[in-house]
Amino acid sequence: MSPDDFPPGSVWLVGAGPGDPELLTRKAARLLECAEVVFYDALVGAGVLNLAAPGAVLIGVGKRSGRHSRDQATIDRLLVEAALAGKRVVRLKGGDPSVFGRSNEEVAALAAHGVTVRICPGVTAASAAAASAGISLTLRDEVRALTFVTAHARAGESLDLDWPALASRRSGLAIYMGRAAAPEITRNLMAAGLSGATPVLVVVNASLATERVIRGKLSALGFLVRAVSNADPTLLLIGAMADPLRAAPGDWLERSQLPREVASRVPRSQVT
Amino acid sequence: MSPDDFPPGSVWLVGAGPGDPELLTRKAARLLECAEVVFYDALVGAGVLNLAAPGAVLIGVGKRSGRHSRDQATIDRLLVEAALAGKRVVRLKGGDPSVFGRSNEEVAALAAHGVTVRICPGVTAASAAAASAGISLTLRDEVRALTFVTAHARAGESLDLDWPALASRRSGLAIYMGRAAAPEITRNLMAAGLSGATPVLVVVNASLATERVIRGKLSALGFLVRAVSNADPTLLLIGAMADPLRAAPGDWLERSQLPREVASRVPRSQVT
Fold it and tell me: Which of B5, B27, B41, B217 is an active site residue?
């Protein structure tokens, strides 16, 4: 129970994936089985925690909205204390620790105390949402760049994002925690030049039994999210890739069968 | 061996993750064990393929550079034929199928023939590279947006990317297949206003035993990749998050201990 890469007194930051316990990596499952203490985020569910050893101590460290900084300091301190007490510690984070997970702050806190800390990557929510919706996040000719942003702002502050860059042509957006800010997102992206007809997918509880995929267009985004609870993790996908029908032209289609707008998007190498 | 979600004659597009067989998801491993036919990309290694059942037929469909489109049509046809023959088919793709994996083209080809196709997400290379380098891809105040792009162009063509958007302030870049185009990337990003002092990490063979992490700055990127073989998958991380030292200020640090440039970046909530 003490493999080479997980000695007592060390910490692993582990990506728990989007929610479905089957979407943990094999490595994450192994580390979780070996851990003596597990600190987990609010979005990590029982199905994942059940993979921990029966004797492990499980400690929820979900953050309260608007008080992130103080809570992060507390989490840092708890991690350091558990490691210095000689425990094998897993810090379970929803999705991938490196995407909006503040893993650098925990890594730095642990390193400053001489604690060995490593990171086990996970499946990020955007990948799980795309899989659930049956789409690709990128399209060979039409969506060449994919940008992840979080729409979570400090209480009372507006989103401080580079909207013209986010509205770039031939790119797609995956917006984490986008429910509350949906009207602000629509307003800013359209002001920056993105068409209100841009396809949108709202993916709620990706990979869980309660998953929902809502399809629409950017101008209606505020309406689309209205039935979504703020408590449910919600990912917004915005761009041409968010429309499974538009994204579909493939090699087996005759150009003559395609409507004009689709035919013009058939990859050049097939047109010649 | 025939679970509800994998009937004969259906296809799963499965993310194989970055290379380390331990970084497959538990679901991917299960589907691979159930598959009768496995089509795999050139970057999927023996360690992953060993997880397939002993009787499974393994078929490599790695693409040759510069001839992608014809090969993609062939792959589409092979997938359809195997499914219509009543096999349980896994299409194994390096990383996550939704990130530069052309999964939409295969989904569309299969759907057009009435074949049931589903997607199992995977750990994308950027997440694995960040984990290996011990960094976060996002920083709470400094890197709020993260853009994935691929630097793979058709033979003889230059990269057709929105460079000003990619050089956006407070954002980070993860560039897939970036080795060959490194000089062009540096030139365009600096012309678009990104400082030559911007931190860069070059991560080669992320998660494999042969993994290498090379650290430097944007102006030296062309030099940094010179010792990297074109055959090795190479990810470029560009932005403030690519410097583990600059990304480190945490709650445990006294402001007085910090050099001026770092102190100015301590999150506001801790400064007040």
Answer: B41
Q: What is the ipTM of this complex?
A: 0.89
Residue A105 — very low, low, confident or very high, per pLDDT cuts 50/70/90?
A: very high
In order, the DSSP letters of A12-38 are EEEE-BSS-GGGSBHHHHHHHHH-SEE
Test B26 with A26 for CB contact under 8 angstroms.
yes
Instruction: Tell me the angle at which helices B103-112 and B68-84 cross, rounded to the nearest 10 degrees.
Output: 40
User: What residue of A is the nearest CA neighbor of B118?
Assistant: A134
Q: Could you read off the pLDDT of B15-71 as tens digits, one per residue?
A: 999 999 999 999 999 999 999 999 999 889 899 999 999 999 999 998 655 555 558
Interatomic CA distance for residues B136 and A13, integer angstroms? 11
Q: Mutate which of B147, B149, B150, B269 to disrupt the A interface (most A C-beta within 10 Å)? A: B147
Question: How would you class A260 by CB atoms within 10 Å of its CB: exposed for 0-12, middle for 13-18, buried for 19 or more?
Answer: exposed
Please, are residues A247 and A136 in contact by the beta-carbon 8 Å criterion? yes
3-class DSSP assignment, residue B216: strand
The 10 Å Cβ neighbour count of residue B121 is 33
- Grouping H, G, I as helix, E, B as strand and the rest as coil, residue B119 is strand
pLDDT at A158: 82
Mutate which of A12, A24, A25, A207 to disrupt the B interface (most B C-beta within 10 Å)?
Answer: A25
B63 vs A contacts (CB less than 8 Å): none
Nearest CA in chain B to A123: B123
HSE of B264, CA atoms in CB hemisphere, 13 A: 2
3-state secondary structure of B27: helix
Q: Give chain B's domains with CATH numbers.
A: 11-120 (3.40.1010.10), 125-242 (3.30.950.10)
At residue A165's C-alpha, the angle toward residues B163 and B151, to 5°, is 35
Are B162 and A139 within 8 A, CB to CB? Answer: no
Rounded distance between C-alpha atoms, residue A208 and residue B220, angstroms: 45
List, as own/partner pairs, every contact residues B65-69 make where C-beta atoms lie below 8 angstroms and the sequence separation is at least 24, other chains included.
Answer: B65/B155, B66/B154, B66/B155, B68/A269, B68/B154, B69/A251, B69/A267, B69/A269, B69/A270
At B97, which amino acid appears? P
Contacts of A81 (CB under 8 A, 6+ apart): none
A267: closest chain B residue by CA: B69
- Measure the CA–CA gap between A21 and B258, rounded to whole angstroms: 41
CA distance B146 to A173: 10
Exposure of B157 in the CB half-sphere (CA atoms within 13 A): 12
- Across the interface, whether the CB atoms of B127 and A122 are under 8 A apart is answered yes
Phi/psi of residue A146, nearest 5 degrees: -130, 120
Which among B143, B166, B249 has a CA at the least distance from the CA of A98? B143
For A90-114, what is the mean pLDDT? 95
Decide if pLDDT at A46 tops 80. Answer: yes
Q: Among B105, B134, B161, whose Cβ lies nearest the Cβ of A145?
A: B161
